[in-house]
Input
Amino acid sequence: MKGRIVFFLLILGIACSGPTRAQLPENVRFGFNLNPTFTWLSPSVNKAKGDGILVGAKLMTVAEYYLSENYVLYSGFGLSFNQGGALKYRTGGKILTGDFSDKIYYNLPDDSRVTYKLQYLEIPLGFRMRTKELGHFRYTFQLPVFTLGIRMKSRGNIEGPGIPSTSGENFSEVTRIFNFSYGFGAGIEYSVTEDLSLIFGLKYQQGVADITNESTNEIKATLGSVVLQAGVLF
Output
């Protein structure tokens, strides 16, 4: 994990040392976001229920292409950490299959609780609308926003009546490699200078695909999140 983070930060450093604002086309801007997240899982059947929220973060680099002063297409890439949530299984049984530390976790008791902790490489594609500048402020709206997530790491915690609790189990076989979501958001853009802006906002994302591996997990679940956006554009 440390190696991946170092590699990602190296890429960011290269991007920062690239063309200056004066060398870029007038309708292109770049930026960086550090976004706290609150994520949860929504199961597809009554046999399980969502039972917890994870606090995580997204570290993103963004490129914006201005169709006009107030209409923007944007994309980028980044890492999201500690995404997921907890599911409580009302009915136990052979719910999970994977490379676990003990065979006892292959047959769970009723009311077992499983927490999924995922790390993704994310590639967003979205459309952003801006109002005219009011003082130094613009109000912004993001709709739609589509995000492809490529799973980099998957861990889990398992607990239940009559079994020892365990954490950091390998959930690579339990979860899918890809996740796809849609979303929308709103915020403000504050112009510090002509070439530097601060971005603050709130975004909702909803997964449209099951994050679990159907062959190793009989309960389907989608990933939802609320994202607090904070970033800079130059």
Summary: The chain has a mean pLDDT of 89. The CA atoms of residues 67 and 73 lie 7 Å apart.
